[in-house]
Amino acid sequence: MSQMELRPGLADVPVAESAISYIDGKRARLEYRGIAVEILARESCFEETAWLLLRGDLPTQRELAEFDYQLRHHRRLKYKLKDLIKCLPETGHPMDALQAAVAAMGMFYPARDVTDAKSNWESAIRLIAKLPTVVAAYHRLRFGDEAIDPRDDLDHAANFYYMLFEREPSPAVRKVLDACLILHAEHTMNASTFSGRVTGSTLADPYTVVSSAIGTLTGPLHGGANEEVLDMLDEIGSIENVRPWLEEAVAKKRKIMGMGHRVYKVKDPRATVLQELAEHVFAETGRPKTYELAMELERVAAGILGPKGIYPNVDFYSGIVYQALGIPRDLFTPIFAVARVAGWLAHWLEQLQNNRIFRPEQIYVGKHDVPYVPLEQRP
Ligand SMILES: CC(C)(COP(=O)(O)OP(=O)(O)OC[C@H]1O[C@@H](n2cnc3c(N)ncnc32)[C@H](O)[C@@H]1OP(=O)(O)O)[C@@H](O)C(=O)NCCC(=O)NCCS
C-alpha cells in the first residue's frame, strides 16, 4: 500500500535546483539571474537578456556585439524549410506550424551529441535567431504573401516586426515589442520549461527540447491565455457590462483569463511594466477600447477576486498591446515562444550540467488480477 502523497500539478514540489530566475509571488518580484525584470524591460534589450539567461551574467560589450552578430547571421531559413512551411495547411494554428518547423530544423542541423558544448551553443543561437523568421514566414505564406527575408541592419525585435509587416516599427513600437520579448523570456519552472527539461533529461537534441516546450506552451492555461483575454473582452463588450459579467462569471466558477497565477498572489510585475511601456504606443495609436475594458475589469476584479490573491498576470495586457501593434490573435502565443525560447534553452543547458532523467512516481489506482476474457466470450 503506497503512502506517497499526490500533489496535483506538482504544486510546491521542487523538480530542479536552478539559478536562472526567481519569483517572490508576495512581493511582485521577478528576477533573471538576480536582476529585476522591470529594469531589464526598461534598460536592456532582448539579445542582452537572452545572453544573461543563457550564460548567467551580463555580457561584456564585446560579447554582446559578437552574440548580436551571430543572431543576425543565423536568421535566415533554408529554402527547404521554407518549402516545408509553405506546405502546411494555412488554416492551421501558427503554434503547430512553429512546432513542426522547429522539430524539422533538428533534421537540417543535426545536434544529437549534447555533450558537445560548442554544438549546443550554436544550436541555441540558431533557435533564438530563427524562431521569429519561422513565425513571420508562416504568417505571410498562409495569406499567399511572400515570406520577407530578415534584415541584418535591424535588431531582433525590429527585424521581427519588419518580417511580419514589411515596414519598420516606430521607436515606441520597437521598444514595447522588445520589452514583451524580455518579459516573456523566462519564468522559473512553468509547464513548458518543465516539459523542455524533461525532454532534455533524456539527452534529446535541442530542437526536440524546444519543440516539446512549444507544444506545452500551446494550451490556454499557459501561453494561450492572452488570445482568450481578447475573446473575453469582446464578450464583455462595454464598460457598463464589466461588473455584471464578472459577477456572473464568478458565480458560474468561470476562470477569468489573464488573471490568477500559481506563484503570484499580487499583480504580476510584468503586467505593470508592460502597461507603462504600452502607454507610449497608445500615445501614437490611441488607447484601444479593449484596454479601457481591461483596466475596468482589473478594478472591479480587485474587489471580487483580489481577496483570493487573483490579480492580472502578464497575459492580461500583452494581447491588448499586440492587438494595438496590428498583430493577429493567433500569433500571440508564437510570439511568447519567440521570447521564451531563451529561457527554455537556459534551462536545457542547466539541466545538462547535472542531468538525471526525470522519472517520477505515480499512485496506481487501477485494478489488479483482472482475468482475460477471450473475445468470443465477451458480449
Ligand atoms: C494560471 C492558473 C492556471 C493557475 O492555476 P492554479 O494555481 O492551479 O490555481 P487553481 O486553478 O487551483 O485556482 C485556485 C482557486 O482560485 C480560483 N482561480 C484561479 N484563477 C482564477 C481565475 N483566473 N479566475 C477566477 N478564479 C480563479 C480557482 O477557481 C480556485 O478557486 P477555488 O479554490 O474556490 O476552487 C489559473 O489561475 C488560471 O487558469 N488562470 C487563467 C489562465 C491564465 O491567465 N493563464 C496564464 C498564466 S501566466
Short synopsis of the structure:
The protein has 379 residues and is an all-alpha fold. The chain has helices at residues 37-43, 46-55, 61-73, 79-87, 94-108, 117-142, 156-165, 171-183, 191-201, 206-217, 225-236, 242-251, 269-285, 289-304, 314-324, 332-353; strands at residues 21-24, 29-32, 35-36.
How would you describe this structure to a colleague?
The chain has about 375 residues and is mainly alpha-helical. The chain is built from 16 helices and three strands. The model has no long low-confidence stretch (mean pLDDT about 95). It binds coenzyme A. Coenzyme A binds near residues 225, 255 and 261.
Within the largest sheet, what's the order of strands? 1-2-3
| Model regions low in confidence, pLDDT < 50 over at least 5 residues | none
Tell me the strand percentage band: under 5%
Let me know the number of strands.
Answer: 3
List the helices and strands in order.
EEEHHHHHHHHHHHHHHHH
Ligands in the model, by name, code or SMILES, are: coenzyme A
**Total domain units:** 2
C-alpha Rg, in Å?
22 Å
Helix content: 55-70%
Mean pLDDT across residues: 95
* CATH architectural group of the largest domain: Orthogonal Bundle
Overall shape: it is: globular
What name does CATH use for the topology of the largest domain?
Citrate Synthase, domain 1
Terminal residue distance:
34 Å
Give the biggest beta sheet.
Answer: 3 strands, antiparallel
Find the structural class using helix and strand composition: mainly alpha
CATH classification, class level of the largest domain? Mainly Alpha
Q: CATH superfamily of the largest domain, please?
A: Citrate Synthase, domain 1
